[in-house]
Design brief:
With about 180 residues, the protein is mainly alpha-helical. It contains eight helices and three strands.
């Protein structure tokens, strides 16, 4: 089970896999930290697979369905079934280029464009928890943004040009909700 996953990060990495699905050797675990049968199913969803093919991973039917639901709920990944074929389903490149930004917790995508990332509520909550664990009670938004930028850079994410101003506005909204 995956708990407290960075869903936006998982969506970003899965989109990257859709661009070049067979270029990476993950060893024991894949880009979603899955190995074994679960990792095989993840890979099958890149190209698309029937339920029978998904069962060839070694999972029993209920376990295979459970894994598909896990990918949706714990990783925030969109999966579609068309003509009996399951696959990851993200907006087309055209849809991404017309999208501005999403300030909700669970939007269609946290990508402004295909190659840039916009921090999510999960990213903010991760930074906030880290600060609270260190005993912090008050911190400036700029310091939060600096920590967030460092974390996302370490994750290999490229931030959009306006990420700081958009995220600053989002943080204000998110803190007003609490």
């Amino acid at each position: 089970m995956s708990f407290n996953r960075n869903k936006a990060h998982d969506r970003f990495n899965t989109r990257q896999m859709l661009k070049s699905p067979h270029s990476e050797d993950f060893g024991e675990k894949n880009w979603l930290d899955h190995g074994g049968a679960a990792g095989k199913i993840d890979q099958m969803l890149i190209d698309g697979a029937s339920f029978e093919k998904i069962l060839s991973s070694g999972r029993k039917p209920n376990a295979a369905r459970s894994h598909l639901n896990h990918l949706k709920s714990e990783h925030g990944l969109p999966i579609e079934k068309i003509d009996g074929v399951y696959r990851f389903n993200f907006p087309s490149e055209t849809d991404l280029n017309s999208e501005t930004y999403d300030i909700s917790d669970e939007g269609p995508s946290n990508l402004l464009q295909e190659w840039t990332y916009l921090p999510s509520r999960d990213d903010f909550d991760n930074v906030r928890r880290k600060i609270l664990r260190r005993g912090g009670k008050q911190i400036s938004i700029d310091d939060i943004l600096d920590i967030m930028e460092d974390n996302l850079f370490k994750d290999g994410l490229s931030l959009s040009e306006e990420w700081r101003s958009v995220t600053r506005n989002n943080i204000i909204l998110w803190t007003q909700e609490n």
